[in-house]
Design a protein that fits this description.
By secondary structure, this protein is an all-alpha fold. The chain is 71% helix and 2% strand.
């Protein structure tokens, strides 16, 4: 699956520097160290407050997300969608955060956390159980579809709808939504970049090259678009080489066929 979003993360360098500073100081007495550990455990066990409205819950969830406090972010986003079931952004962020948690080493090593097939009637294929992230992205799709139905010119809603489809590996639907976002706002470098990315995934290299060239032209500092452009151009060369080889070989193949007849 392609990943379009650039997730905000805490500054690990700052954390390393802080740890180095701690190592250079005199260790605290054991009793004080135990108190610090107990304080951290107590903070981790403290439940989040009930937020007054969905927007506040979403904002707090974003703060937790940026601080890599994913469990707290999930709780805040869940409150947001409970307070406002039509808050598409909260569903999308919930899906992203669940994805991070599901990809943590502890989750991948624990068989209880992995999706299991759902029992079906005899003769039918087993349907894999949806992960929590997939359920959140499906809800995001439902709400974003409502939004674009009411306001077809909402470029951001089309864009986020495309991202949500992409997370569900529904590539054709993602392409359609991202194309509409680009059509409504062609000067957005990130829109062009993500459209190019999904076109690469679909092996539509010519169109991908076009979109990504526009993305780089709009923003020369867009390194993601520049890297994807190299991938798209390489894919286009492979396709062109294959087509040219077939064209060159076709007369020889036809001659051999005529001789056999």
């Amino acid at each position: 699956m392609l990943v379009f979003l650039q997730l905000n993360c805490s500054d690990n360098t700052a954390e390393i520097n802080a740890n180095q500073a701690d190592l250079s100081t005199t260790p605290a007495p054991m009793a004080e160290a135990d108190q610090a550990v107990n304080a951290d455990l107590k903070a981790a066990e403290t439940p989040l407050p009930d937020y007054p409205d969905a927007d506040t819950a979403l904002a707090e969830g974003n703060k937790f997300f940026d601080a890599n406090e994913n469990e707290n972010a999930v709780d805040a986003y869940k409150q947001a969608v409970k307070l406002n079931p039509d808050l598409a952004e909260a569903y999308f962020k919930l899906g992203i955060t669940y994805s991070l948690l599901e990809n943590e080493p502890e989750a991948t090593e624990n068989p209880d956390e992995t999706p299991t097939p759902t029992p079906t009637k005899k003769g039918k294929k087993d349907v894999p159980k949806l992960s929590k992230s997939d359920k959140a992205f499906e809800n995001a799709v439902k709400v974003y579809k409502k939004i674009v139905a009411k306001n077809p010119k909402d470029d951001a809603a089309h864009y986020n709808l495309g991202l949500s489809y992409n997370k569900l590996d529904q590539d054709k639907e993602a392409e359609k939504a991202l194309r509409q976002a680009v059509k409504l706002k062609p000067e957005d470098s990130q829109y062009q970049t993500d459209l190019g990315a999904i076109l690469i995934k679909l092996a539509h290299y010519d169109e991908a090259v076009s979109a990504l060239k526009k993305a780089v032209k709009l923003d020369e500092s867009n390194l993601q678009a520049a890297e994807l452009l190299e991938t798209a151009e390489a894919g286009k060369k492979r396709i062109d080489y294959g087509v040219n080889k077939i064209v060159k070989e076709k007369p020889r193949i036809n001659n051999n066929a005529q001789k056999q007849n």
